[in-house]
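step: validate -> pass
step: tokenize input -> pass
step: predict -> running
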Amino acid sequence: MAQIGDKVLFTLAIALTLLGIAMVYSASAVLAAERYGTQYHFLARQAVWATLALAAMLVTMRVDYHLYQHPRLVALLLVGTLLLLVVVFFFPAVNGAHRWIRWGALSFQPSELARFALIVFLAAQLDRRIPAGIKRFELTFLPCALVAGVMMGLIMFEPDLGMALSLGFVLLVMFFIVRVPFRHQVVLAVGALPALAWLIMHVNWRWERLLAYFDPWQDPRGSGFQAIQSLIALGSGGITGVGFAQGKQKLFFLPEPHTDFIFAHIGEELGLVGTGLLVLAFGVFLWRGMRIAWHAPDTFGMLLGAGIVVAIVMQALFHMSVAVGLFPVKGTPLPLISYGGSSLVITMAEIGVLLNIAQQARPDDV
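step: predict -> pass
step: emit ->
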């Protein structure tokens, strides 16, 4: 069973990455030609990142996942990630946000690594506390919530509220899996919700986006512009789409069609059929990934696998939901599809970890 799982997940990851390369080219060719003088600028960079991402997946697929359980490695990963989340503030802001560490033409987004680091820490910490200490507030809930809180706080100050909230969601899901007492999780919610409300209401552009979520047409050229253009792109595609590279919304109507709104771009060019198949693909990813986690040989493997799957699928669902107007506009890449090196490499590396867990499935599940 594990061998079949490896093939399905491996094939799916490769297929989605190849689709991403094609759609990044289609969405960015006009922008690249105007900005860089060649329509292949983003295509070439994404192809390089995809090659590195494949290499990362092949490496992590061969590394015994139990290595991530070692206390020294967990500590090194946490400290290194926290340092990067601090260092990023010393680099110039891009569009008002300190999210990238740049070396010349290369850039790296530490918050992407933070997601994996938090999953590893939570899996190791919760595994050590099962079963006797899982109900102990000071042994389980407190250290996990503190580490997640520090990471989320640093990421919120970048600012990247969406990524911070995704870390919080991963924390809650992993608490749910190991049955951390509900009253402890209520404590987390009671503390987080007022802070979230303050962060939205006291930052003008966030508040405007929230208002635009309820009625984007009240400001169609301002805060509602992105949501409206995304819906126009999806509606223009109809059932089968207008054809590959034939979309019109990418002609400087739909913002960031190769990154934050690539799902809407896919909907325009490949139609409901294309977006439906993409949703199905992530559904298969969820099924195969959780199957691998369920059949992991130990609790650490189960928690590590489940955390990775939940994080990736949740990000995909959030991206799609923004495109169709179910959530307020927030720039979130579509895993394996959107343009971007950090997200692609780390996501593929995480999939490699999943594949390694699958290779070590319990003998009765093989």
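step: describe -> The two ends are 4 Å apart (CA to CA).
step: cleanup -> pass
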